[in-house]
């Protein structure tokens, strides 16, 4: 089951993304420090037992297994080249208002599509489960 504990929040601002990192294995002097992770669009998506999971606030790409020499922007670009934030390739302070609005719209759209997909998948599973229960009832009666 996918963890959803902090995915309801949209981490639009770098400051909020930085604050989301409750645990992180790398210190501030490392290539993938919390500040650099947040700058490249990542917020913390880990758990108590798996602390090195981060996800992009725009495209939702989740990455784990970080190493201290990993560059957050490069990793983001490598694993999600289609991400609008990656396409701009600049921290939020270097974006124009128009670009920031574009990012905001993309974020909302991704969220909407993901929610829709989850609803659809869960709906199908539920229908399938009910169908099996009914078949079982029909067979036993
Ligand atoms: Zn992204």
Automatic annotation (TrEMBL):
It is found in: Chromosome, Centromere; Cytoplasm, Cytoskeleton, Spindle; Nucleus. Its main location: nucleus. CDD domains: BIR (cd00022). GO terms for cellular component: chromosome passenger complex; cytoplasm; kinetochore; nucleus; spindle midzone. It comes from the Eukaryota. Keywords: Cell cycle, Cell division, Centromere, Chromosome partition, Cytoplasm, Cytoskeleton, Metal-binding, Mitosis, Nucleus, Phosphoprotein, Ubl conjugation, Zinc. GO terms for biological process: chromosome segregation; mitotic cytokinesis; mitotic spindle organization; negative regulation of apoptotic process. SMART domains: BIR. Pfam families: BIR. GO terms for molecular function: metal ion binding. Belongs to the IAP family. This is Uncharacterized protein. It comes from Anopheles gambiae.
């Amino acid at each position: 089951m996918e963890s959803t504990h902090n995915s309801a929040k949209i981490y639009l601002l770098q400051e909020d993304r930085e604050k989301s990192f409750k645990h992180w294995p790398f210190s501030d002097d490392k290539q993938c420090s919390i500040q650099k992770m947040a700058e490249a669009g990542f917020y913390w998506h880990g758990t108590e037992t798996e602390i090195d999971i981060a996800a992009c606030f725009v495209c939702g790409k989740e990455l784990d297994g970080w190493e201290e020499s990993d560059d957050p922007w490069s990793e983001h670009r490598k694993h999600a080249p289609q991400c609008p934030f990656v396409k701009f390739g600049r921290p939020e302070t270097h974006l124009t208002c128009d670009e920031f609005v574009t990012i905001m719209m993309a974020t909302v759209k991704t969220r909407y599509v993901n929610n829709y997909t989850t609803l659809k998948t869960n709906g199908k599973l539920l229908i399938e489960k009910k169908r099996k229960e009914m078949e079982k009832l029909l067979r036993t009666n």
